[in-house]
Design brief:
The protein has a 10-stranded mixed sheet with strand order 7-6-5-4-8-1-9-10-2-11, with helices on both faces. The N terminus is likely disordered. By secondary structure, the chain is α/β, with parallel strands linked by helices. A hairpin with a 2-residue loop joins β14 and β15. Helix content is 28%, strand content 16%.
């Protein structure tokens, strides 16, 4: 470890001498801390309007940084969104385009040799650590975190396994770490769903079977703090893809905020299970407490960096992998919470509620506090943006779809207002593209795989809630954005989107 750290410090010094780090005044590249929440909607953050959930530490980030108000996640569900983040390529070009499973554990892997943000930072001398959920390649593959540029990973490799916060195991790099969650690990039916009979009416004791001894989010949080302490003397990339607030609805009984939220929401119907998610006695209170507990972990990381005297040398990014989950899923009433605010629909959808996510960048002395970028931006932008903000003389991979936001974030320019962003989702059978104020949506007809519904058009400038389809009023814009859909979608045999494949080849 000491030898590796020394090598990195030497590499950084060499880059400075050669001018590879540009002209910043600091002696080393900045640290990067990237918080990626799981299914957190814009309306789940107090600073962005939540009337139900307390998020003081996240609120502080939004007060101290520049907000991206029209930021699209990489996709509307987990794995393909994370692929866009890591590779800088939008879903029409990405190597992962859905949440496809890989047995016995994991998701379909990215191809060997895929260039990732973590890999580029690792090659530039950064210590790289990921703590939370991966979802881009099974354990032991070339597409697991170790194969994709991370020195250290701790958490869930598989998204399906993350449907409980009391799993039977987690992964420490390629080592399986067994957990003392006997109540769940020995009962896979319980661990992944289970149900409670409605009659007789259940009491709190009926739900105890669905808890365990080792809460995964707490274990992961301790490891990420240890990573920071270990690498405080060298530049590091801390990737925090937390599993919160993705279902299941679970939080330790000793969570301090739980009682307050139970009082806030009052009596609420319990969720008795089914559909692959664990029963929960008080769904709304539990969801809110999960987010507040996660917020506290965000604060612990920021405070540790401050205590170590390196907070001002750190770029913080806070965002979510897609919009909030749809109402009723796992017993959660996200409509009552207004988890997506006024945005249309939810996770999995081509509309803004599926794609637009809460996003802020903080870097004291470099990124203005209270700033705002209202132009369209997306996950494909993070790879070039972070490389540029860090001042690394790294050759960017060919074929990137992202644009660097370094200059607009630092106040040295403006992001283009009329910028094309493209998304598609194989499992959802849709495409969408935005160009400035205009947004087009095309969806497939079930059971008629080569046929698409008429294109919808929305004016996000006057109608951010996408309530009025104005396609008939602007046929020229529809034709232009349809051409973009056809050109940006590259057919892939592993990710069929039949109506788009046909249109793309005919264009």
């Amino acid at each position: 470890m000491h030898r590796r750290a020394g090598f990195r410090r030497g590499l950084v010094a060499l880059l400075v001498v050669l001018g590879g780090l540009g002209s910043p005044a600091w002696s080393r590249p900045p640290n990067i801390v990237f918080f990626l929440c799981d299914d957190l909607g814009t309306g789940d953050v107090a600073a962005l309007g939540s009337q139900h959930i307390k998020t003081p530490n996240i609120d502080s980030l939004f007060a101290r940084g520049t907000r991206l108000t029209r930021h699209w996640a990489g996709n509307a569900v987990c794995a393909p969104s994370r692929c866009v983040l890591m590779t800088g390529r939008h879903p029409g070009h990405a190597v992962i385009r859905s949440n496809r499973e890989f047995k016995p554990e994991g998701q379909t892997p990215m191809p060997p040799g895929t260039v990732t943000l973590a890999g580029l930072l690792h090659a530039a001398g950064y210590a790289t650590g990921g703590f939370g959920k991966w979802g881009l390649g099974p354990p032991g593959s070339e597409a697991d975190p170790v194969g994709c540029g991370f020195d250290r990973f701790f958490g869930y490799n598989c998204q399906r396994e993350a449907h409980t916060f009391y799993p039977g195991h987690l992964w420490d790099n390629r080592d399986k770490v067994m957990l003392d969650n006997r109540a769940l690990s020995g009962d896979p039916v319980v661990a992944r769903g289970g149900t409670i009979p409605a009659e007789p009416p259940p009491d709190a004791s009926a739900f105890a079977r669905f808890s365990g001894e080792r809460y995964s989010a707490d274990l992961i949080a301790e490891q990420q703090l240890a990573f920071v302490r270990q690498h405080a003397s060298e530049p590091f990339f801390l990737y925090v893809p937390t599993t919160v607030p993705h279902l299941a609805l679970q939080v330790p009984a000793d969570e301090p905020s739980l009682a307050d939220y139970q009082q806030h929401f009052g009596d609420e119907p319990p969720y008795l299970g089914g559909g692959g998610y664990i029963p929960c006695l008080r769904p709304l209170a539990t969801y809110a407490a999960m987010i507040t507990r996660m917020d506290r972990e965000v604060g612990r990381i920021v405070s540790l960096l401050e205590d170590l005297g390196i907070s001002d040398e750190t770029i913080f990014v806070f965002t979510s992998d897609n919009g909030a989950t749809f109402p009723g899923c796992g017993g959660l009433d996200t409509a009552r919470l207004r988890s997506n605010g006024d945005l249309r629909q939810w996770k999995g959808s081509p509309y803004e509620g599926g794609l637009r996510v809460p996003t802020v960048v903080v870097w004291p002395g470099h990124v203005p506090a209270g700033g705002q970028i209202d132009a369209p931006t997306g996950f494909e932008d993070w790879l070039p943006t972070l490389l540029d903000l860090a001042g690394l003389g790294v050759r960017k991979p060919a074929g990137l779809d992202g644009q660097s936001l370094a200059k607009p974030l630092e106040g040295r320019g403006t992001a283009p207002a009329e910028r094309i962003l493209y998304r598609e989702l194989t499992e959802g059978r849709w495409q969408t593209v935005t160009d400035g104020r205009w947004k087009a949506v095309r969806k497939g007809v079930p059971k008629q795989p080569a046929r698409a519904l008429p294109i919808e058009l929305y004016d996000l400038g006057s109608d951010p809630a996408e309530s009025q389809d104005v396609a008939r009023d602007h046929p020229d814009i529809v034709r232009r954005l349809e051409a973009v859909m056809n050109s940006e979608h590259v057919p892939h045999p592993d990710w069929p989107l039949p109506f788009a494949d046909v249109a793309s080849r005919a264009d």
